[in-house]
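Q: I have two molecules that I believe assemble together. Could you output structure tokens for the complex as a whole instead of separate predictions?
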Amino acid sequence: MSDVLDELQWRGLVAQTTDVEALRAALGAAPVTLYCGFDPTAPSLHIGNLVQILTVRRLQLAGHKPLALVGGATGLIGDPKMVGERTLNPPDVVADWVDRIRRQIEPLLDFDGPAAARMVNNLEWTAPMSAIDFLRDVGKHYRLGTMLAKDTVARRLNSEQGISFTEFSYQILQGMDYLELHRRYGASLQTGGNDQWGNLLSGVELIRKVEQASVHALTTPLITKADGTKFGKTETGTIWLDPELTSPYAFYQFWLNADDADVTGYLKIFTFRTRDEIGELERAVEERPAARAAQRALAYDVTALVHGAAAADKVVAASAALFGRGDLHDLDEPTTAAAVAELPTAAGSAGDLLADLFAATGVVTSKAAARRAIAEGGASVNNVKITDEAAALEAGDLLHGRWAVLRRGKRTLAVVDAGR
RNA sequence: GGCGGGUUACCCGAGUGGCCAAAGGGGGCUGACUGUAAAUCAGCUGGCAACGCCUACGGGGGUUCGAAUCCCUCACCCGCCA
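A: Yes, here they are, computed for all two components at once.
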């Protein structure tokens, strides 16, 4: 890996930079201290944030020093979204989210060694600042014209909902962060998603004005899907890194279901596989798409990265058992138990209405939806299609006298546990 | 502060007294075809103890046998004027 920037470009991770050649020179000359921020707007990071973390990790592997900023301050204000004003979250909630997010980032970066990462929180320098200091020392450097011209701000001003002063001010806070990290740790590169470009520039310009220093910014592209739909969402919602919010099984399944057209791009972005390995997998998709070798590699790698190799092995085995060709009754008890442990579960027993059980496990959202699914031929028990809306669970349906696997459509699964 | 326009289901958007659980589109779900993929075609898409009942057209109140539709009021958004 001679040139990290080449590496990032090859992986499709560079959308915009302040000055590519200046950045390339800086990254080639000496270890650069870089920063990337994560705002606590939810109790967990999601796979969109993973793009940022892994980009930072790649830079770290090339010898550069990351500062992972968790926005205890910016999270209290809210980055303006394209559509609609955010609801302010209570400070204690944000503080809790800060902790959770820190713990998610920690295992993904290296906090020891010569390029050790450091965790920072912008609440530390933002909270003690008075309104007067803010307006005199920082506000004076900001031109309203520039601020109003920012994409998101302009869009919001033209929207029906407008924008509050609070959200409008967000870009200044983020600019202050970069300045502060530049002063404290010599940060000279900020990375982020392309939607953050304006916010990154805010800091670059502030540093230029206050410190007469030229620093860099680099954004990663918005991850897109070949079919044009939004990346990172499923019918169930966002794919979170927190195993409580998105089970490792569901996480693995998400990646396994990547489109052929998207999978190579995802391998570049979300795994540490080499160019050769990815080229190999790309060929495999072309030659034997049904084998989905690339999807399996992708799903395994990302799951192992986020949830650990042990968890990844478990969900691979569970997926094999549940989607295997054989009769579920033929699986031995330990295999069944392990597979079933990965699925959403509801208690039930022989005699219960299947429609009620489908609703109870969350495979469908309501009993009416369960009846609909059965009527449409989209519901099965242990991979056997059911057709009678009024059918009940039978004792013979229970695998090893205990479990019944409910399925809606091809890949939405849950289990009924009749206990022991 | 004044005047005008607006707020409808997951989203966009029709609907100006009963035929409205609410057109149409998007999205989503299911089926067929497949590979737990994409594309395509078809059906479905508020809930429940279900020939009925409940919830739902920004919040609250009213008129009426009957309201998403009319009136009052509150909130928020947009525009013009000050």
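A: One point stands out. Chain A is about 50% helix and 10% strand.
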